[in-house]
Amino acid sequence: MFGSHLSIAGSMTNALNEAVELGLDTVQVFTKNQQQWKAPPLDPGAVREWRSRVAALGWQDRIVSHASYLINLASVNEELWAKSVDLMTQEIERCEALGIAFLVHHPGSHVGTTLEAGLANIARAYKEVFRRTKGARVVSCFEGTAGAGSTIGGPFEHLRDVRSLSEESTGEAARLGYCLDSCHLHAAGHDMSTAESAGKVLGAFDAMCGVRHLKVWHLNDSKGKLGSHLDRHAHVGEGEVGGGTPGKCSPKKLRASGFAAILRDPRFASVPKILETPKEEDAKGKPMDLTNVRRLRGLME
Ligand SMILES: [Zn+2]
Ligand SMILES: [Zn+2]
Fold it and tell me: Engineered SS bond to 92: which of 86, 133, 265, 270, CB 3.0-4.6 Å?
């Protein structure tokens, strides 16, 4: 099940239409401007149009929303923490209104405090957010990060602890999941460059976090080297994971890479796999999303 992060500029349903044009099976969207704290309420007409289009496509179980990058539920600053709780509440409410299945968000940063205090702040934030959005069905997915500085989510211990502490504080296991990003994994120091090393990474993730809680994959190649903590996405097969260079994919290396391990793993067959690669066109003016998804589908054969 392949998708891409697409724009809702002009109309929410534009993202659905573009996904269909690209031959995709799902889509990831921002449900609001991701750089702003405030968002105008969703227009009821737009919600109706979105929901009927999603139902016609049969995509009720697979659409992903990415939460705003402004949110930091780990923050030691009470004002920023409270604003983050408010915005996360809105993100969940918008997903509910639109019938979106998964909400991906970065765990946050513990800058100015300890990792333990940051994790506790997230669990406390979730308690409040879930209390305000009682009964919501969207699964909030902690995304593994490249792990730069005080960013939470590079080591699997962080992902294990943030989810288990939030489960403890909310009592709502079914509303908490994970999203892994192949670029972030590699940049965080989990070697995704060969199918064999990736198999070990996925085994370690399963042992520590539980692969059954993995609801979304972000399939991006990485401009940064292993352990570089650089969050820079490259086209599939043109980075450190797939073994190529910008503009040059080696199909042989790609077939031996971590991408192949992910795509051949039956546990991920029905997990949405989202591209967050640069929205560029090739020399012939063809969207690179088409090339990226063709490369990924090729690995399943
Ligand atoms: Zn991602
Ligand atoms: Zn990223």
Answer: 133
